[in-house]
Design brief:
Helices cover 20% and strands 23% of the residues. It contains 3 helices and 8 strands, in the order αββαβββββαβ. A hairpin with a 3-residue loop joins β3 and β4. The N and C termini lie far apart (62 Å). About 10% of the residues have low confidence.
Length: 181
């Protein structure tokens, strides 16, 4: 009887193990770290969805472009937007626009998307992180990442358009490269 129960227990564990297994390990070359005052946010980059956008973000992160940039537009129940060196929502990098890479990937809590103007091909350095499911963005904005850890820190970003005292990205880097000194 003990052998039967042990076999049954092992079989049960084998059935439930895949469902309770943790998410796949992140690739450090495609993992972005954003250091906020309350802690680190880990973003899984999605070159499978938006290779040009991911390359842009990685290039800017490696240059230190994002270090110290504020969250200039943070709307409760919607998203937190950053990536503008002027802090106004009108600026960008000197690298120019990136063409749209729209996919059917849905915008949900922790989805990271490319901010842009009315033109679909106007994304540059700005991006946003969704606080919640936002289906009205689906297929209209480029998804280039997903928060894998640290969403509780995103939830603490000061609200406002612009916030009275905006929070900023202290350091942003690709995990494989490590933080700059």
């Amino acid at each position: 009887m003990k052998t039967f129960l042990a076999s049954l227990a092992l079989a049960f564990l084998a059935l439930i193990a895949p469902a309770s297994a943790q998410a796949p390990k992140l690739d450090p070359a495609n993992t972005l770290i954003i250091e906020l005052k309350s802690g680190k946010v880990t973003i899984q980059l999605r070159p499978d969805l938006a290779p040009k956008h991911v390359e842009r973000v990685k290039t800017l992160a490696k240059q230190g472009f994002y270090d110290g940039i504020v969250f200039h537009r943070v709307i409760k129940g919607f998203m937190a937007q950053t990536g503008d060196p002027t802090g106004t929502g009108t600026g960008g990098s000197k690298l120019g626009n990136v063409p749209a890479e729209f996919t059917p990937t849905p915008f949900g809590r922790g989805t990271v998307g490319a901010a842009r103007s009315q033109s679909p091909d106007s994304a540059d350095s700005q991006f946003f992180i969704c606080f919640t499911h936002t289906p009205f963005l689906n297929g209209k904005y480029t998804v280039w990442g997903q928060v894998a850890d640290g969403m509780q820190h995103v939830d603490q970003i000061a609200l406002g358009e612009p916030p009275p005292t905006p929070d900023k990205m202290l350091k942003v880097y690709v995990q494989a490269d490590g933080p700059r000194k």
